[in-house]
UniProtKB/TrEMBL annotation:
Entry-linked InterPro entries: SoxD (IPR006279), SoxD_sf (IPR038561)
Short name of one Pfam family: SoxD
Skewed-composition ranges (Polar residues): 111-123
GO BP annotation list: tetrahydrofolate metabolic process
Compositional bias of kind Low complexity: 100-110
Source organism of the structure: Paraburkholderia panacisoli
Name of the protein: Sarcosine oxidase subunit delta
Ranges where the record places region Disordered: 90-123
GO molecular function: sarcosine oxidase activity
Gene3D superfamilies per the UniProt record, alphabetical: Folate-binding superfamily
Length: 123
């Protein structure tokens, strides 16, 4: 079982989280202009790399916030976390903990995370 560190709640068991798949997939702007192959690629084709992978995770049994994790798919080691308003946080670094400035950007984060999640799981 993975031990995943929620940027807001701290380390928790993997069973508290839902994986949202590959991070950083942008929905095409003009979907009417896409071919079926391009639309299918957007919906279904993922990198699935051997090595470093960027993923979206939701702390479903906790704070219900989305964040991104950089994980090695070979060793399962999670190398860092990223919220939707802060860049990658290295493991063990508390200097830029998101809780310090979270109150003013909390609602923005949830809005962005929600739209991003829909992109990741669109069917
Ligand atoms: Zn959490």
């Amino acid at each position: 079982m993975l031990l995943i560190e929620c940027p807001w709640c701290g380390p928790r068991a993997e069973t508290e989280f839902s994986c949202g798949g590959e991070a950083g997939i942008a929905r095409p702007l003009d979907t009417d202009q896409l071919t079926d192959k391009e639309w299918g690629d957007y919906l279904f084709m993922r990198k699935n790399p051997r090595g470093v992978h960027h993923e979206q995770w939701m702390h479903t049994q906790g704070c219900r916030r989305w964040f991104k994790a950089q994980r090695d798919t070979v060793s399962y080691e999670i190398q860092g976390y990223e919220t939707f308003e802060l860049p990658l946080l290295s493991m063990g670094s508390d200097a830029n903990a998101p809780g310090q400035s979270q109150s003013q950007t909390q609602s923005q984060t949830q809005g962005k995370a929600g739209s991003n999640a829909q992109e990741g799981t669109a069917s």
